[in-house]
Amino acid sequence: MASLRIDFLTLFTDMVECYCSDSIVGRAREKGILDIRARNIRDYTADRQKRVDDAPFGGGMGMLMQIQPIDACYASLVEENGGEHIHLIYMSPKGRILTQQRALELSKMGRFAILCGRYEGVDERVIDTLVDEEISVGDYVVTGGELPGLMLADCVSRLVPGVLSDDVCFTEESHFSGLLEYPQYTRPADYNGLTVPEVLLSGHHANIERWRREQSLLITARRRPDMLEKCALTDADRRFLEKMKNEDPD
């Protein structure tokens, strides 16, 4: 049995399948660690013409996805799950911003579903009666929920044990520790005069770890100072940041 199952409720199943068949996620599916499936909402509409959208009451631009096909699609998932509730996430710019912490929590859930909206969104009754939480991937709007949903699935999947070769693959990445990631380099050590920092060539692991920590602190302070307020800093971290502030007050 897979460690995590994610079901997509979407009008574009091929988009989901195409992405989830390749790279890290695809290999994890082949190994049976992940079970990611896409269910076409259009297959559950009661409309003879297979319509899933209609004009909003009160007028306005665009069309809304109707509640009936979404409700029927979700009900089929629940029935397949022995009648047990499945946590349903709606990708929406009105949702709370996706964080690494929330992704980690979802990775331990065992199973959840992602509803991908289209057009001008979904009938509000879907959100009121079916959706457990709304998640946004940023303060912007895209054409549909498939790309944000895939971003969520990818982010969560990486945190499932066995998907990556080692936990260090994600524990040292940006946001996991509360800091942005330090710079990284590979061969050659000198490319047209662009050289790798000497400490990384020294073989002195303690010095390398200290340099990486300090670089993460420095980058975070310059680019995302808001993150430092939530990060658990050591006394050494604070001394380094104060030193940098004094040397570069701007």
Identify the notable features of this structure and list them briefly.
five-stranded parallel sheet, Trp Operon Repressor, Chain A, 2 domains, 250 residues, Alpha/beta knot, alpha/beta, single chain, 10 helices, two-stranded antiparallel sheet
Structure report:
The chain is α/β, with parallel strands linked by helices. It folds into two domains: 4-157, Alpha/beta knot (3-Layer(aba) Sandwich), CATH 3.40.1280.10; 172-247, Orthogonal Bundle (Trp Operon Repressor, Chain A), CATH 1.10.1270.20. It is built from ten helices and nine strands. The chain has helices at residues 13-20, 23-31, 67-80, 100-107, 124-129, 146-157, 168-171, 205-223, 225-228, 235-247; strands spanning 4-10, 34-40, 53-54, 64-65, 88-97, 111-115, 133-136, 190-191, 194-195. Strands 2-1-6-5-7 form a five-stranded parallel beta sheet, with helices on both faces. Strands 3-4 form a two-stranded antiparallel sheet. It has a two-stranded antiparallel sheet with strand order 8-9. α4 (100-107) packs across α6 and α8 (205-223) packs across α10 (235-247). Residues 168-172 have low confidence and may be disordered.
